[in-house]
Amino acid sequence: MEKSRKNLRKILVDLSPVLIALLIFISTRIAVRNPQFVEKYYSDCVYPVVAVCLSSFSNLFSISIWDIFWAISIILLIAGLFLAIFRKIKAGTFFLRFVQVVAVMYIWLYISWGYNYFRPDIHTRLGWVPPKTDETEFRSVLDTIISGANSNYVVFDSTGYSEIDSLIELSYKMNSACLGITYPNGSRRNKKMVFNSIMEKSGILGYYGPFFSEIHLTSNALPSDYPAALAHEKAHQFGITNEAEASLFSYVVCVTSDDQKLRYSGYMTLLIYFLNDALILEDYAGLEKKIDRRILHYLYYRKDYYLNLQNKTMEKAQSVAYDAYLKTNHIKSGIKNYDQVVALVISWYNNSQSGSTIRK
Fold first, then answer.
1. pTM of the prediction?
2. Among 27-31, 131-135, 140-144, whose mean pLDDT is lowest?
3. Domain count, the chain
4. How far is 212 from 146, CA to CA, in rounded Å?
């Protein structure tokens, strides 16, 4: 009888990560249907505490904890697989440990950040009225962005990154109320990717690691991209899971700054999205003529630069995987969500008083 109880306890202990993961999964299905509850109790109350704890720990290390963690995990997985194949450990034991680790990672993801996927969209959170965007409205905002890029053109170099980081933080603090975020929400230390080359070949120039609240940017990002890319990843640390919303936050934080480099980076980055949408317009060539030739030449150079870093096969595989991940987490448009920033920027200008006072 005692032996049966011990066996039962062992089974329950072994399966506890899986059972908790199942409860987390059920809770996510409930969260999808109750975004206001998620916003009030997780995004506004639980997540800021989690972000402070995780970022306080991870910022003790200059190296990316997450990059090291997943590298070690892959090594252990391969080692365990070989041990199971050569019967050094039981196949059942290996499978159980694998399932346990996956379950713990699943639990960790949603508690540390993932429930933010189910909060209301930005229009609901900030009380914005979605505008009926038309070509006239699109052209008006595009002209504003072109004008802003032209008037703020500046030559970048790879120095002064720490100052840029501080300026972005200052702008986030100043814009926290209008963006509806909790500031400071812990701390944000940019970390270079440990496996930089692999990420670049996959088309990844920056990412947010929610497991340890870490921000990562590639060491080969062009200097003029650095401010906007850093502001984008910082937006994720503030609990913004939607890629288009993170790009909007980056735009607002950069173009409302007193610093010319931040403003230029913000305008230039959004100009790329707007020009992509403008390709269907009959007078596209005329729109290009409005852009400072130095900026236009740079945009062509930028495109070739990043394409040369990528491996098409790895980039496609990463895109497919991330598309599936986003769709699983209530981002219905998947990877196309990045391109939806155009509509959000137009909405910003229509709904926010700050939109009319953005520095040009």
1. 0.92
2. 131-135
3. 2
4. 38
